[in-house]
UniProtKB/TrEMBL annotation:
Pfam families per record: FAD-oxidase_C (PF02913), FAD_binding_4 (PF01565)
Annotated EC: 1.1.2.4
Enzyme class: oxidoreductase
Organism (species): Trichocladium antarcticum
Domain FAD-binding PCMH-type: 37-214
Stated name of the protein: D-lactate dehydrogenase (cytochrome)
Similarity comment: family membership: Belongs to the FAD-binding oxidoreductase/transferase type 4 family.
Swiss-Prot/TrEMBL keywords: FAD, Flavoprotein, Oxidoreductase
Entry GO MF terms: D-lactate dehydrogenase (cytochrome) activity; D-lactate dehydrogenase (NAD+) activity; FAD binding
A biological-process GO annotation: lactate catabolic process
Catalytic activity, as annotated: (R)-lactate + 2 Fe(III)-[cytochrome c] = 2 Fe(II)-[cytochrome c] + pyruvate + 2 H(+)
Reported cofactor(s): FAD
GO cellular component: mitochondrion
Length: 466
């Protein structure tokens, strides 16, 4: 592995390779995740072009050395960890917008482009890329986890926004999955093969993304409910109403309490009801937004018998403050974590009709653990996260948390749901994927992997085992 790193340094330049311990640690461990591996890569390498990536792959392939792509490291299932060591390929210097086609509403970017920066750069053309995971995330990582976020309710997930990919395969071969038109039925859909593959099939070096028009107007409303079941049931009604909300999110009473006590200054400007709360985002024309707010407010009133006060933003400042509460929630929660504890955050999705039941069940099971546990999520997609703070040195507590998470996965599968709505599989959910898909489907995935990566050197140990 070290010989491979030295050869890469000779090929790309000494400053393209780092052996620094802090750098290796940063690229091998996530504080956001409990799915970490104690192993580290021997070196982190920094390509600047597709041909650099191809050179890295040729060297690693010749020496049978694992390659682990790295975007911003914000994924949470150990997706970029290095259980088999190897070379970590960091795309942070491949961060250019290659071509912007406003008339075609698409953009060609390198994988290291951060989505927030991209949206700032193209905003003046009235366009944006809708997926909104961690604000630090890069397009390469977002493609590879098939991420989503709060906007997925309206805009779908990452797979719906990728037009084509340039990919460097394990042996250094460079392929392009298709061309740039909005539609094609020419040949196998290889773009989709690489979206969500977590870097196990190749390294993405260029991405053409579809863009959406920035809506003329937006607004935000919050609605607290007496119980989490009421909130989830109302969410189901809202989804079924057919009104095209931009986002529909849930935060439980624990999250709301944290906002009151530890939220940013903007968020603490208001006193939040410490009750399970739905956050609704509206977008469209100004008239359309107004009409949607009225209709949604009527539905909430009818479903709850007027027991849930519906509060919508009356100014742009208030809109920003209300939405900030939702966007900051994970960061606020992480910032108050007592030293020595870890955050186990898990992610499931179920058919919308089963949502109230599974959220209610999860809350009850978590409360039996006697630790901090909280539900937050993208309920518009039937997708929610449970975050639990536990002490990893307490073996019994850790065992019970793990058991609770596994029961939650089993419950989601019983409801025809999935064990990963948006965080992918990484090393954390390999067992659960087997339960979800069965040996035949995993068998086909293995055959595909073998066909493109016969030496099993692309991000090995992720999604499923050898
Ligand atoms: C606070 C917070 C909030 C979050 N909110 C959301 C959310 O709302 N929705 C959501 O979906 N996710 C969310 N996430 C998870 C995370 O942001 C996403 O998984 C994101 O897509 C990861 O992007 P990244 O650039 O950090 O990728 P990384 O974490 O660096 O990598 C992710 C995976 O992609 C692979 N990879 C990276 N670059 C490439 C490449 N060029 N070619 C091939 N493979 C590559 C890696 O090997 C790894 O398997 C959140 C995370 C945090 C910490």
């Amino acid at each position: 592995m070290l010989h491979a790193a030295e050869e890469i340094a000779r090929s790309l330049g000494q400053d393209a390779v780092s052996y620094d311990d802090d750098v290796l640690e940063h690229h091998g461990h996530s504080d956001w995740s409990t799915s970490n591996s104690p192993e580290r890569a021997v070196a982190v390498v920094y390509p600047r072009s597709t041909s650099d990536v191809s050179a890295i792959a040729r060297i690693c392939s010749r020496r049978d050395v694992p390659m682990v792509p790295f975007g911003a490291g914000s994924s949470v299932e150990g997706n970029f960890s290095q259980p088999h060591s190897g070379i970590c390929v960091d795309f942070s210097y491949m961060d250019s917008v290659v071509a912007f086609h406003p008339d075609d509403m698409d953009v060609v970017v390198q994988p290291g482009v951060n989505w927030v920066d991209l949206n700032t750069q193209i905003a003046s053309a009235g366009l944006f890329a809708p997926m909104d995971p961690s604000p630090t995330a890069t397009v390469g990582g977002m493609v590879s986890t098939n991420c989503s976020g709060t906007n997925a309710f309206r805009y779908g997930t990452m797979k719906d926004w990728v037009l084509n990919l340039t990919v460097v395969l394990a042996d250094g071969t460079v392929i392009k999955t298709r061309r740039r038109p909005r539609k094609t039925s020419a040949g196998y859909n290889l773009t989709s093969l690489f979206v969500g593959a977590e870097g196990t099939l190749g390294m993405v070096t260029e991405i053409t993304l579809k863009l959406a028009p920035i809506p003329q107007d937006t607004s935000v409303a919050v609605v607290p409910f007496p119980t989490i079941r009421d909130a989830a049931a109302a969410a189901t009604e809202l989804i079924r109403s057919g009104i095209q909300l931009a986002a529909l999110e849930i935060m439980d009473e624990q999250q709301m309490k944290i906002l009151n006590e530890h939220g940013s200054e903007a968020v603490r400007r208001r006193k939040w009801a410490e009750l399970p709360t739905l956050f609704l985002k509206f977008s469209g024309t100004t008239e359309g937004v107004k009409s949607d707010i009225t209709r949604i407010s009527d539905i909430v009133h009818a479903t709850t018998g007027g027991r849930a006060p519906f509060h919508f933003a009356r100014s742009k400042q208030e809109e920003a403050d209300l939405w900030a509460a939702r966007k900051e929630s994970l960061f606020t929660m992480a910032s108050i974590r007592p030293p020595g504890t870890e955050l186990w955050s898990t992610d499931v999705a179920v058919p919308v009709s089963r949502l109230a039941e599974i959220i209610d069940w999860s809350k009850r099971e978590c409360s039996k653990l006697g630790i901090f546990a909280s539900v937050i999520g993208h309920v518009g997609d039937g997708n929610f996260h449970v975050a639990m703070m536990y002490d990893p040195k307490d073996a019994e507590q850790t065992r019970r948390v793990a058991q609770c998470v596994h029961q939650m996965m089993a419950m989601a599968l019983e409801m025809e749901g999935t064990v990963s709505g948006e965080h992918a599989i990484g090393i954390g959910k390999k067992d659960c994927l087997r339960d979800e898909l069965g040996p035949e489907t995993i068998g086909l995935m293995r055959q595909l992997k073998r066909a493109v990566d016969p030496k099993w050197i692309m991000n090995p140990g992720k999604v499923f085992d050898w």
